[in-house]
Amino acid sequence: MKLHYEWSGPSDAPVVVLGNSLGTTTALWERQLPVLHRRFRVLRYDHRGHGGSPAVPGPYRIDDLADDVLELLDALDLARVSYCGVSMGGMIGMWLAGHAPERIERLVLCCTTATFASAQPWLDRAATVRSSGTASIAPAGVGRWFTPTFRDRSPEVVASFERGLSEVDDEGYAGCCDALASLDLRSVLPAIEAPTAVIAGAADEATPPECGRSIADAIPGASFHVVAGAHLANVEADDAVSAIMEGHL
Length: 249
Description:
The chain is α/β, with parallel strands linked by helices. The chain has helices spanning about 35, 60-75, 90-100, 120-130, 140-145, 150-155, 155-165, 170-180, 210-220, 235, 240-249, and strands at about 5-10, 15-20, 40-45, 80-85, 105-110, 195-200, 225. It has one domain (about 5-115, about 185-249): Rossmann fold. The chain has a seven-stranded mixed β-sheet with strand order 1-3-2-4-5-6-7, with helices on both faces. The longest helix has 14 residues, at about 60-75.
């Protein structure tokens, strides 16, 4: 799988890879770039079926999505990198740090979980998207990503994310939903050696702070941070998340 990717920042700096949440593209990280570019070379990529990356027929597993990233690192001759992921991107980061520890220098996990209480909502969403397309879920989906306060304050940002979700390949999105339905990374967390920072949004209903707390408790030495008044924290509380990321990396 040849993923679409984008380089930015100083070419001679340490590399940080940024992994997106389900239904988003590399644009998810725009607010972190000014801070990260002070010290890092940033590699952003799109998951299969998202943005500029092609889709293949699903279902997928989290292993498949993580293998895509390893193939990208190999293609770019990157032996070891730091990795930051939001939601599904964070799940991929946990898999990478647990199964390929020699590739991950430091790890930031934002608004994510190691498992879900039930697979059925993800299977139902995959079926809906396969029958009706991502545009059919975009308004409700993006509505869950942001707090009412942020939606009122920044309607143009919310609208841009809604357009982005509606443009995600139907099968690519549904295949990723299948991956989340079968997700269970709890057994790999104690084996993660990379220094890890876990960030949770206080208003995140999909992966609430207790999910982040469980991850941080299971990864040796991990730090845990709760960002107030945010669901998709790196967008809604970008300054706070950027500061945590820069300090940890």
